[in-house]
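[worker-b] picked up task from shared queue
[worker-b] task type: protein-ligand structure
[worker-b] ligand name resolved to zinc ion; SMILES cross-checked against name lookup, match
[worker-b] sequence length check passed
[worker-b] input payload:
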Amino acid sequence: MTLSLLCRAEGVVSRIQLNCPEGIAILPNVVPFGHATDLRTRLVDAIREIDIVPIELADDNAVPDCEIFINTIPESMPRSSIMIIGAGWWGGAAFATQPPAAWTQVDLHNPLPIGPYIAATLAVADVYLQIRDPRAVTGSRAYGWNAWTCTSEVGSDTSGTVPLGLDLSGIALAGVGAVGTAWMATLWATSGLSGSIAIVDSDAKGVSSSNLNRGLLFRRRDIGLQKAEVAATAAKGTIDWRPINGRFESSDIRPSLLVSAVDTNTARDAIQSRYPARTLSGSTRDLRAETMVGGRPGDGACLRCYNPLEAEVSDAQLRARVEQEGAGVLDELARGLGISNEELANRLEAPGCDAISDRLLAQLRAEYGDDTVPARFAVGFTSAMAGVLLAGETLRLMIHDEPDGIPDSKRVTFQFRRPESSINGRRVYPRDAVCPKCDPAAPSHEIWASRYDRWTSKASGKS
Ligand SMILES: [Zn+2]
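[worker-b] inference finished, payload out:
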């Protein structure tokens, strides 16, 4: 995962050197590409197949700009070095400092990839920030994230054990892009899973070169092929992926758990219209990864809640009009689109999901008192984190192992710029009082509520 994220960071990483002993047999479901059975060869082959940033074996005289140690504690930690470790549901990264003693006690034999993948995103986020915004990452520090407790605690109990043979049938994924492929890659790497999962993507253009920096299951040679089919082939394993090219809402799939990894509110609205018993959603904004667990009907949020529909007119068209006609046209535009002035302002500021928004940029520039903070971040690590956390919430729902006091509907946020801040964590996520899709007075409420209750009674029968 670390290599896959680094090699997609074109423009930030120019070259990767790998230091890995020869003669280590590779386990199944570790590296999605290549065929070699030796770990080192396989890693190099896979990164070359992805074909973005070049990789070579490390030579002894190399002086890298940044060194990442994985599950290895070096004797000294130079200024730009990162040490990462992950196990079970927890992953951590130490920057220019030795990791806390508790970290070395974690059980590295735990087969769950969630913690290690979290650690990988933390390392690569730091590499980006060292280059794009070095003032955000000064000093030595160490932090981690536990996807089970949604806190920074290392955690050592046995909660969240995924039983061998856990059947994931009844799940469908909508959106096989940056977040969706990270979700698939995480489940693929989790041993012991089975079942059939429909994966649906409606992008008729298929994989494009701009998807390579974030789509963890895409290689350059896949450009032009349908995303769901490419991802299903790359993540071939014990899960039977059923790729579908088209819109979820026009398919005949009736999942009991729908995982949303779509990236527009219009798409969220459309897939919520099918009212699956349970919904999960993963999304990103700037350097923030988020997951949402939807329902219970009438109380908890749905996929449409707090997500106003985008108007049919494109943001570029809107910007062009404001540039031509001046700010005076804003009121008229907002009225015409049926959105608030604030929402319109947000849209005008959002340059697209792989660039940092102008609003955040202005905030950063004001904070540092200059305008040299760069405008673009390649945010592959953010969507990877969203997908990994989303896979964690999927497994949590499927094993029905929820600690007492955790609400049915919740939202988890992880912000990479201030990972240690209290922004990061889990919160109750009540429904949006004005959301038309989950209005308890609407006829659809009864359908959704009966499906939800069926899910819940089946779940309590299992535990
Ligand atoms: Zn709603």
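[worker-b] attaching auto-annotations
[worker-b] The radius of gyration is 22 Å.
[worker-b] releasing lock
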